[in-house]
Amino acid sequence: MTSQNEIPGKVNDRKIFLAVSVFYVIAVLIRYLTNKTQLLSGIDNTFIKVILQAIGPTIGALVAFRFFQIKPVMTLKGDFKNFFVPLAIYWLLPVILIETTAYFSTSTLPRVAVITILVYGLFEEIGWRGFLQQALVSLPKFVRITLITVLWFAWHLNFEMSLSNLTFFLILFAGSWALGFIAEKTNCLLAVSAIHSLNNFFSDSNVYKIGVLSFLLLVWVLSIVYRNKLGGNKINSYLPVTLV
After folding, report:
1. Any idea what the Cα angle at residue 152 is, between residues 198 and 199, rounded to 5°?
2. What is the reported pTM?
3. Taken in order 230, 232, 237, 238, is the CA torsion positive or negative?
4. Of residues 48, 20, 205, 56, the one with CA closest to residue 116
5. Cα angle value 116/147/156 (rounded, 5°)
6. How far apart are CA 138 and CA 144, in angstroms?
């Protein structure tokens, strides 16, 4: 086992650069194959097809973690003592609220769609926050957020020069800041993936959806504040990359 202190800084920097490069090449390559080619044309299951379109960052992260022997900081339950707590707050609660709202407003139960959006967000976040934010944590905060935003934006493979794309870039920048903050506070992939998914849940808003969105944000903010007061969060728990 090799500790970070036993490796000269320049070697660490080189390893992190290579790890990030490998992660990103894999993430973009899979994104291109699943979104810009006919690779998935033979798959009829919409759930599987959509999930595969987001799996690149996860595979890239897993390869980088394994090949470069980087110990992940974030996990599904994060700093929560009990896995059921973040599962209930960040996944079960939005599923129940969105299902209930949809049933009373449109008489539908979009269960598969809701779960698809959550899993899609999780596969992205394993890469962007679970790996990339950890790998770049030694950079100044603004530089780190900007770099993650640029890489995240480019990963979508939509380079049209338009106002909507500029708006999307700004949304990703705000998301990189907010999700990065949640990641630092909780180390919980379920939390960041759920908050990531809000943008997809409420892409077309109405009064019911705005109410659900507001309630979810209130519950999630209060849960983080409550955990901090109990001392459940370590402010500096999001440590630099650890080589094992």
Report:
1. 10
2. 0.86
3. negative
4. 48
5. 35
6. 8
Residues facing 71 on adjacent strands? 242
SS3 241: coil
Residue corresponding to tokens 């490796």: 7
Tokens at residue 146, please? Answer: 């900007």
Burial state string for 87-113 with b = 16 or more CB within 10 A and e = fewer than 16: bebbbebbbebbbeebeeeeeeeeeeb
Number of other CB atoms surrounding residue 138 within 10 Å: 12
Range of the domain at 93: 4-243
Q: How many domains does the chain have?
A: 1
Structure tokens, 2: 């090799």
State how far the Cα of 97 lies from the Cα of 211, in Å rounded to an integer.
Answer: 10
Report the C-alpha gap between 49 and 34 in whole angstroms: 8
Question: Which token pair is 143?
Answer: 């530089």
**pLDDT tens string 191-206:** 999 999 887 776 666 6
pLDDT digits (tens, 9 = 90+) for 159-190: 888 999 999 999 999 999 999 999 998 999 99
